[in-house]
Amino acid sequence: MVTVELAIGVLTAALLTACLAGLSLLGVAQAAAGESSAQIARQTARGDDAAVELARERVPDGAAVEVSQESDGVRVAVVVPVAVPLLGRFTVSADSWAAYEPGVGP
After folding, report:
1. What InterPro entries does the entry give (predicted)?
2. Separation of alpha carbons 28 and 63, rounded Å
3. Type and span of the H or E element at 33
4. b/e code 36-58 from CB counts within 10 Å (16+ = b)
5. Host H or E run for residue 73
């Protein structure tokens, strides 16, 4: 016979597993934001417009990208909204900076 305690335990384990899987989505989104911001900053600092466009195409869906060209380099911020099942909506972000290559500047 299945007892109430066992049923509650199985339900709790299932909910905990779902929450942990949802939290792993935050880690994946953070890694994607970091990689995107680093690639865009690097390619902008190199002056490679085609590679910048390719890097922008790989930004996660719904992400906001802000590029600011400073006197000594390029700063890129990527902000990604993430919906985590059972936990709600979160926002992850990543900032990267890259120095200009010789011969490239603002």
Report:
1. Rv3655c/TadE (IPR049790)
2. 14
3. helix 4-46
4. bbbbbbbbbbbeeeeebeebeee
5. strand 73-84
Polymer length of the chain: 106
Predicted structure pTM score:
0.79
* 85 close to 22: Cβ distance less than 8 angstroms: yes
Query: Tokens 């380099």, residue?
Result: 73
pLDDT in tens, 16-56: 998 888 888 899 999 999 999 999 999 999 988 999 999 99
Which of 48, 41, 37, 36 is closest to 103 using CA atoms?
Answer: 48
Q: Tell me the per-residue pLDDT of 47-64, one tens digit each, with 9 for 90 and over.
A: 889 999 999 999 998 999
